[in-house]
């Protein structure tokens, strides 16, 4: 298997269907089994016809399978009668081949039909289950579009991703296999019971003795193995975590000579993993031999007593043969039911995680009567804005900012001061708790989000490109842009040159991590993207970490060009930007603590002056003139 | 795979026992039909003599055999589980120790992510293989052959049916397998694609919303969703043939045996019980064949894992300790490069060309230059993460190749560019710099690194937990903790690789001021991007494309070095350059 298969993160230990059979792994308990089950069933309601077909074919297929041993028994009986007759001295007794032939043909028909129905059931179910999970994925995807950014801030990508893929995949495989298995297991149990009763109530009684025995064994083994599987899972997680951590931190391990410490730690974890691992493996492995033994008990009992009854002339041999097969098949659905019960539990738990996403609170819908800016100028005003990431933790109180057309507003402050908060508010990624934000005197809440966001261009440090060609990435912000437009924008962003040096120029496909171009080149592409979109207002992040100095010079020139004539909010790192800004917003602890231009703020002698002075102190504390 | 067998050697007894148990198990499972056939064959005699004792005796034997089967199967499972888990443990440990001793070159060659998968996932795969191997893989062939022999023995007349059935079954299994395995691979690819689209959506959520591309993204997702669904339906429908086909095959076999068996009874003196036993043998043989088929499905995957694991184990690390180790403690705080050139293995161009410089105790050397100019490589050479291609790097006057790696690195406090913290407490993380550091020393290091402030604000202070990868502290805090870790080591040589990039100017300058108080007797080498961070250094090394284009103080370089001036001008406005 390639490394690709594991991108979702660490493997979760033995997969379902691995050694020990499905459902032997640790089972997650759903929170509200009934409610979630009902909700899951609702997804199936659109497929009533298909499901009825599945139901009927499963039952039919099972019935035929169950009926077959009985039919086979007819042939055996016929044979045995002849043989007994011969043994009794009737040498003339002939085997009734035409009867046996008919019986066997009939049997063949049963088998073929049973297989056919089984196939139909699987075939139909494949359509249903895939359609259901298709709908589910689509729903999640659409839901994610309507969720506020707040939702994403609190969760890792892996967490959300695993709901779209792993959880949905669990549901899909349960629908594909579990549903029909369950129907068939129940039908088999009932069917076999009926057949056995019809052959011999006495033998049935013997066979039934194994039922409670099996039930006890199954529940004992399952509950024991649960415990060890949990332990194995935990230690496996620990081991994987340690490996991941030590490997990614390899340089530090080497530099500080921590190899021995790390290996010793690993040994401890590995030892614990070994113990739980073999125990869980072993316990789950003894299920089959135990069940087989119990099955064999029934088998032997039936064999002996059945044959005695044949000797006594109370039964025919064919029936005994059939009965033996029934007994053999009796334990299987019991094990299956136990496993399916576990599978269903974890499926419901998976479904609950999916539903959780679907039930998240959505963004406030766009207002009904929407304002449209015909000729946007780029004046922005914050009036008495209150904001906090949650209602009970208000960060910003009564903030007033005024930015006029074409001005540059520099946002400065220490790391973690919340400089992106302002960006989030202007773009309406978050809702404010009080006051209002106006663009050209229009409250942004009266615009649609789409219209509002069209007004802004955004170039962030976190350059986002998707796997597609360079051209597609530049044209991302501007549908219907021609190739010439793209090239023009790239030229303006100083990106044209490096793009042409790429293997396929503008048609070079950026790979998943866009690792085939450098960080600085990525930034140039995002600038080109913003230039092409040509918005009246801009949001820029000047930070250019991991960019070489020459590319950085390009980036800055490109940014300067981009800012010409536009109202720009700049998360500023360059002194020149800060000093030349029309307005400086000084942020700390999530809120704007000072605002004004450079001269004003220096005169104030507050936080900004302190900040500004500190960056030009030498190690002896004196100013460089 | 065979190479990995050596890890099984120490379990030879367990394996031998497991094999013995599996053989007994096979014997038991093939004896049961015999006994059943005895019962059936004995019915006419019993009904004539009315003597049931023979029946009971045979029944008793069957029970005993069943019991034996259960016991040996459980024992075989026990040995298999212990062996497989032990094998996995040893292998994992071997891999981990091997990788821990890798130099950076080996990490580059295989890749960190792949190394992780190999130590975790691939080992799990192999563990499964060993379990399967000790149970099914041994059992299936034994069962298959033994079953065939018994079947032929009991009813030689029917041998040809068995041959036909086995052939037919093999064909069915082969056809279905060859159809399904490739589609499963396609399915995996489509799933990966869907994952990719979704991941991009999540990482780019702000950009997507900023550009109003929700509908475009929705279309993109829907396309791959639809594509995945179509493939999945196709795959599942293909796979749906598997079970019914195999069932028909096996059932057909039963019917055929019954029919030709009847003929055999009629003309060739076959007994009924024997016929019934023959059916059971045939069933066992067919199950064994299907088990074999499953092994063949599983084997390629496990073999791929084995290959990947072996690659790791076979790789020899390039950096080796010298046989005769020198002592580096004679002098402290000297680093010298003499005409050093370095080329990464497999690279077309050298990364560093003819680098020479030296630094003394208390002196601060800064290295500046564009990305790919080789700044970090210089630090990597001092740490001997790589060996020079030409020239010599010496620390405290000794060639780094003449020191043991342990001794060399004990001389160095290194703060890497990527701030790496480990899970544990704040204090644990700082202590990693010097394992026997006292609480005092740790606190002092944190104070100097400007980390004491935020650490004290954390809920449990120095005992506060750091999450894996340090994700629960900010980038700037991570950097400061990494600096504290370096400081607690009190080494003669300090290396800072672009260490202050996530700090704001104010914190940075405070940190620098406090830092240099501590490093007065040490050599300090700083790699930097910001001119403001490095302009006060005693000497500045300007790198361009792997070559030294300037060496001197800020003032000197402003006059003499054009590359340096260019860098400075791009970062500072005119009047600040002064």
From TrEMBL, chain B:
Subcellular location: Cell membrane
InterPro entries in the record: AAA+_ATPase, ABC1_TM_dom, ABC1_TM_sf, ABC_transporter-like_ATP-bd, ABC_transporter-like_CS, P-loop_NTPase, Type_1_exporter
PROSITE patterns: ABC_TM1F, ABC_TRANSPORTER_1, ABC_TRANSPORTER_2
The entry's keywords: ATP-binding, Cell membrane, Membrane, Nucleotide-binding, Transmembrane, Transmembrane helix, Transport
All residue ranges annotated as the ABC transporter domain in the record: 335-570
Bilayer topology annotation: Multi-pass membrane protein
Residues in ABC transmembrane type-1 domain copies: 16-301
Cellular component GO terms, alphabetical: plasma membrane
Residue stretches spanning the membrane: 62-81, 134-152, 158-177, 239-261, 281-299
Superkingdom in the source lineage: Bacteria
GO molecular function: ABC-type oligopeptide transporter activity; ATP binding; ATP hydrolysis activity
UniProt-listed Gene3D superfamilies: ABC transporter type 1, transmembrane domain, P-loop containing nucleotide triphosphate hydrolases
Regions annotated as coiled coil: none
Protein name per the record: ABC transporter ATP-binding protein
Organism: Bianquea renquensis
């Amino acid at each position: 298997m390639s490394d690709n298969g594991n991108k979702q993160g660490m493997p979760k230990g033995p997969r379902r269907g691995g050694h020990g059979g499905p459902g032997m792994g640790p089972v997650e308990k759903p929170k509200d089994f009934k409610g979630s089950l009902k909700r899951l069933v609702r997804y199936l309601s659109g497929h009533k016809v298909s499901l009825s077909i599945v139901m009927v074919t499963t039952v039919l297929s099972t019935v035929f399978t169950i009926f077959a041993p009985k039919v086979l028994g007819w042939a055996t009986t016929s044979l045995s009668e002849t043989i007994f007759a011969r043994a009794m001295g009737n040498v003339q007794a002939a085997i009734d081949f035409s009867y046996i032939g008919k019986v066997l043909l009939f049997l063949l028909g049963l088998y073929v039909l049973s297989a056919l129905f089984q196939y139909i059931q699987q075939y139909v179910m494949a359509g249903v289950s895939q359609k259901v999970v298709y709908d589910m994925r689509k729903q999640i995807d659409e839901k994610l579009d309507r969720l506020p950014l707040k939702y994403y801030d609190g969760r890792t990508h892996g967490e959300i991703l695993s709901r779209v893929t792993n959880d949905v995949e669990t549901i899909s495989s349960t629908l594909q296999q579990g549903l029909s298995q369950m129907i068939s297991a129940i039908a088999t149990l009932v069917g076999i019971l009926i057949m056995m009763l019809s052959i011999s109530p006495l033998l049935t009684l013997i066979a039934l003795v194994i039922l409670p025995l099996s039930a006890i064994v199954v529940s004992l083994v399952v509950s024991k193995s649960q415990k060890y599987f949990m332990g194995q899972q935990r230690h496996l997680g620990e081991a994987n975590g340690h490996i991941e951590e030590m490997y990614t931190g390899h340089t530090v391990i080497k530099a500080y000579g921590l190899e021995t410490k790390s290996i010793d730690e690993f040994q401890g974890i590995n030892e614990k993993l070994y113990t739980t691992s073999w125990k869980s493996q072993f316990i789950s492995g003894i299920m089959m031999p135990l069940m087989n033994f119990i099955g064999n008990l029934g088998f032997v009992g039936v064999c002996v007593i059945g044959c005695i009854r044949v000797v006594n002339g109370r039964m025919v041999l064919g029936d005994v043969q059939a009965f033996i097969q029934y007994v053999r098949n009796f334990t299987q659905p019991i094990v299956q039911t136990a496993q399916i019960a576990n599978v269903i539990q974890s499926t419901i738990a998976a479904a609950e995680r999916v539903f959780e996403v679907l039930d998240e609170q959505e963004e406030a819908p766009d207002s009904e009567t929407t304002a449209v800016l015909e000729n946007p100028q780029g004046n922005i005003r914050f009036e008495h804005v209150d904001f906090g990431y949650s209602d009970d933790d208000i960060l910003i109180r009564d903030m007033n900012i005024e930015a006029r057309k074409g001005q540059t507003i520099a946002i400065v402050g220490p790391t973690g001061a919340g400089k992106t908060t302002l960006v989030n508010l202007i773009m309406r990624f978050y809702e404010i708790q009080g006051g209002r934000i106006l663009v050209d005197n229009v409250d942004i809440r009266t615009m649609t989000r789409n219209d509002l966001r069209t007004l802004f261009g955004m170039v962030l440090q976190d350059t986002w490109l998707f796997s597609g060609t360079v051209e597609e990435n530049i044209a991302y912000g501007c549908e219907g842009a021609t190739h010439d437009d793209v090239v023009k924008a790239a030229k303006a962003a100083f990106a044209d040159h490096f793009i042409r040096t790429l293997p396929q120029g503008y048609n070079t496909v950026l790979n998943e991590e866009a690792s085939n171009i450098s960080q600085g080149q990525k930034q140039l592409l995002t600038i080109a993207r913003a230039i092409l979109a040509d918005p009246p207002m801009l949001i820029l992040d000047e930070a250019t970490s991991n960019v070489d100095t020459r590319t950085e010079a390009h980036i800055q020139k490109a940014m300067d060009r981009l800012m010409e004539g536009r109202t720009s909010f700049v998360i500023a790192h360059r002194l020149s930007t800060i000093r030349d800004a029309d307005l400086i917003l000084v942020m700390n602890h999530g809120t704007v603590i000072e605002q004004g231009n450079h001269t004003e703020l220096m005169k104030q002698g507050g936080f900004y002056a302190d900040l500004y002075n500190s960056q030009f102190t030498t190690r002896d504390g004196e100013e460089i003139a | 795979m065979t190479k990995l067998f050596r890890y099984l050697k120490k379990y030879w007894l367990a394996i031998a026992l497991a094999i013995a148990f599996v053989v007994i198990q096979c014997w038991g499972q093939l004896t049961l039909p015999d006994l059943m056939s005895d019962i059936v064959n004995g019915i006419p005699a019993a009904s004539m003599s009315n003597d049931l004792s023979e029946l009971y005796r045979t029944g008793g034997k069957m029970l005993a055999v069943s019991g034996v089967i259960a016991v040996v199967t459980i024992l075989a499972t026990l040995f298999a589980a212990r062996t497989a888990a032990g094998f996995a443990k040893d292998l994992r440990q071997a891999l981990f120790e091997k990788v821990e001793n890798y130099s950076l070159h080996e990490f580059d060659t295989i890749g960190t992510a792949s190394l992780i998968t190999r130590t975790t996932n691939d080992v799990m795969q192999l563990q499964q293989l060993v379990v399967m191997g000790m149970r099914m893989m041994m059992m299936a062939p034994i069962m298959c052959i033994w079953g065939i022999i018994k079947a032929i023995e009991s009813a030689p007349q029917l041998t040809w049916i068995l041959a036909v059935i086995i052939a037919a079954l093999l064909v069915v299994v082969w056809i279905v397998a060859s159809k399904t395995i490739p589609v499963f691979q396609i399915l995996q690819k489509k799933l990966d694609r869907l994952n990719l689209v979704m991941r991009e959506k999540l990482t780019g959520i702000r950009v997507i919303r900023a550009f109003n591309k929700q509908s475009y993204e929705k279309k993109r997702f829907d396309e791959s969703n639809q594509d995945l669904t179509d493939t999945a339906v196709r795959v599942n429908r293909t796979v749906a043939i598997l079970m019914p086909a195999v069932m028909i095959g096996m059932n057909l076999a039963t019917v055929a045996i019954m029919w030709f068996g009847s003929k055999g009874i009629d003309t060739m003196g076959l007994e009924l019980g024997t016929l019934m036993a023959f059916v059971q043998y045939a069933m066992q043989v067919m199950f064994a064949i299907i088990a074999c088929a499953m092994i063949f499905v599983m084997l390629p995957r496990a073999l791929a894992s084995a290959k990947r694991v072996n690659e790791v184990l076979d790789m020899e690390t390039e950096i080796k300790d010298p046989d005769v180790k020198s002592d580096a403690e004679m002098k402290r705080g000297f680093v010298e490069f003499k005409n050093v050139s370095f080329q990464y293995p497999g690279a077309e161009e050298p990364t560093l060309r003819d680098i020479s410089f030296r630094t003394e105790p208390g002196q601060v050397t800064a290295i500046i230059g564009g990305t790919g100019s080789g700044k970090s490589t210089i630090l990597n050479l001092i740490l001997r993460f790589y060996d020079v291609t030409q020239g010599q790097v010496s620390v405290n006057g000794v060639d780094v190749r003449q020191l043991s790696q342990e001794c060399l690195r004990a001389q160095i406090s290194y703060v890497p560019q990527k701030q790496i913290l480990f899970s544990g407490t704040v204090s644990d993380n700082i202590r990693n710099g010097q394992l026997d550091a006292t609480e005092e020393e740790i606190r002092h290091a944190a104070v100097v690194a400007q980390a004491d402030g935020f650490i004290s604000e954390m809920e449990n202070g120095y005992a506060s937990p750091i999450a894996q990868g340090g994700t629960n502290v900010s980038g700037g805090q991570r950097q400061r903790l990494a600096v504290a870790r370096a400081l607690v080591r009190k080494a003669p040589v300090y290396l800072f690789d672009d260490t202050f990039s996530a700090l704001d100017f104010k914190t940075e300058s405070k940190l620098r001021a406090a830092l240099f108080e501590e490093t007065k007797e040490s050599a300090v080498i700083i790699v930097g991007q910001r001119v403001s961070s490095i302009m006060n250094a005693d000497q500045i090394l300007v790198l361009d494309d792997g070559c030294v284009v300037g060496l001197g103080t800020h003032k000197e370089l402003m006059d003499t070095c054009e590359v340096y001036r260019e860098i400075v001008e791009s970062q500072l406005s005119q009047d600040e350059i002064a």
